[in-house]
Structures are given as C-alpha cells and as structure tokens.
Amino acid sequence: MEKEIDINKVVRQHLEMEQFFTGFALKGKDIKSEQQKPEDNMTNAEKAAELEKIADEVNQCRKCSLGSLRTNAVPGEGDSNARIMFVGEGPGADEDAQGRPFVGRAGQLLDKIITAMGLKRSEVFIGNVIKCRPPENRDPRADEIISCLPYLQRQIEIINPEIIVALGAPAAKTLLNTNKSIGQLRGLFHEYYAGLGRPPIKLMPTYHTAYLLRNYSQENRKRVWEDMKKVLAELGLPVPEHGRK
Ligand code: SF4
C-alpha cells in the first residue's frame, strides 16, 4: 500500500509540474474555452493515420526499462473516432504475447460487457496507461508511467472520445491525477482535461475486469453494470433492461 501511494504521489507531482509549465492540465475546472481544437477538423482517415504513427513509435520505444523486457508492445486498438475509450493499467501475459490489449480472460469479460452494452469491440478504443508489460505483472513504477503516459495522452487527444472509462484504480488515479480509491471514484462522472483550450472529457472509473474476475460477486458485477448504464445514458444510447448477471 505504501508503495502504491508513493508511486501515485510521484506521478501526481510530475503531472502538476507539466501542467504548470506547459498548460497541459489533467485536472481543474478553471480552464474553459470555446476554442476548437485541431483534432476536430481531422477526418477519420487522418486520425487513424496519426494513431498508426503513435503505434509505430510505441513499437520502437525503449524510453523505459520495460521496452527491453517485453515480447510485444501493446499500443491499443479500436475505432479512431470512438465515442468511448476503455483504459486499463497495462498489458498482461496474453497481451504481451499478442501485442493486443485486453485479449486474456479479463479481455474476454470486457468484450462481454461491451456486447451487453449493445456495442461492438470495433466501435470503441481500448488501451492502457503503460504500453509494455511489467515483469511478473508487477505494478508499473512511477518513472515508467511518466515515460509512457504521453502516448495515451496523444491517443486521447486524437480520438477525442465523449467518454473515457478508466478500468481500475491505477488508470483512474493517473488520468484524474488523484489519490482517491476506486471505491470513492467509481459510479460518478469525473473530468479529464486534455489541455488548454480543450473542453473536458467525461471519465467514468469502474472496476478493472481482472479485479471483477477475482471478486466475481453479484454485487461487484452489478456495480460495473450500473456504471456502464450511466455511460450509455450519457451518450444517449439505449440502456438494455438487463445487463451482465
Ligand atoms: S512502457 Fe511505454 S515508455 Fe516504456 S518502453 Fe514501453 S512504450 Fe516505451
């Protein structure tokens, strides 16, 4: 627990410093502008090409030690114009082996949740804060998160989703620049700020599907489904009467 708090503190300090010097803000309600951002004028093909460029950079990246330990980097995948982005912490063994996000058991559960929402996996974007698997699935270190986060920030800027679903505490804490627990954060919309002149993006934290598999109680399943129903309602999409049981 002590280690987790320290990591979060170091990442938070880095993000606050970045915000101070560059105007890039992950949190705060004081930055408002009607200014249109460049990505609003990009075609889907241009967005897809930009995402491909980021994926190429990730696949070559050796900015932190995880780069030399991975089998494959996992840049993320999905619709370049997705209305929803799902963001987890980092790749596991299956993802490392295939170079694709959320393809193991936790990924299969995420697929079921997406289907229950009336969506297809190809209609959303799925990615992670960290693009390479930490050995033995250990928690990513603060320096690794700081090195890797700009890739995700750029992906969010390009896709410009209406809603980000942060899967699990590490993703939610990093994107919201907070040290609150997932229990305090989930179930409510928060705001992710992508920078000066950009309107905030709604962010819904919920449990990671790997956590859900480890704690597969009806209560936890219901909590995640309630969170996803709020996402659908916010997007004006039909909310299925019955979800994951
Ligand atoms: S984890 Fe991120 S920063 Fe580190 S080597 Fe992989 S892509 Fe680069």
Report on this structure.
It contains nine helices and six strands. The chain has helices at 2-22, 44-60, 93-98, 105-116, 142-159, 169-176, 182-185, 209-214, 218-235; strands at residues 77-78, 84-88, 125-128, 163-167, 190-192, 201-206. Strand 5 (190-192) and strand 6 (201-206) form a beta hairpin. The longest helix is centred in the N-terminal third of the chain and has 21 residues, at 2-22. It binds iron/sulfur cluster. The site of iron/sulfur cluster (SF4) has 14 residues, from helix 5.
Short description:
With 245 residues, this protein is an alpha/beta fold.
Question: Strand-and-helix sequence, N→C?
Answer: HHEEHHEHEHHEEHH
Cofactors, ions and other ligands in the entry: iron/sulfur cluster
Number of strands: 6
The whole-number mean of residue pLDDT values reads 89
Which strand order spans the largest sheet, edge to edge or round the barrel? 1-3-2-4-6-5
> What best-fitting shape do the alpha-carbon axes yield?
globular
Strand content: 5-15%
Counted by DSSP, the helix tally is 9
Uncertain runs are: 24-37
Kindly report how far apart the N and C termini lie.
32 Å
Category by helix and strand content: alpha/beta
Q: How helical, in percent, are the residues?
A: 40-55%
Sketch the major β-sheet.
6 strands, mixed
The rounded Rg comes to 17 Å
Q: What features would you highlight for this structure?
A:
245 residues; alpha/beta; six-stranded mixed β-sheet; 10% strand; binds iron/sulfur cluster
List the helices and strands and how they pair.
Blueprint: H1 2-22, H2 44-60, E1 77-78, E2 84-88, H3 93-98, H4 105-116, E3 125-128, H5 142-159, E4 163-167, H6 169-176, H7 182-185, E5 190-192, E6 201-206, H8 209-214, H9 218-235
Parallel strand pairs: 2-3, 2-4, 4-6
Antiparallel strand pairs: 1-3, 5-6
Helix pairs in contact: 1-5, 2-5
The structure holds iron/sulfur cluster (SF4).
Iron/sulfur cluster binds at residues 58, 61-64, 66-67, 73, 130-132, 144, 147-148.
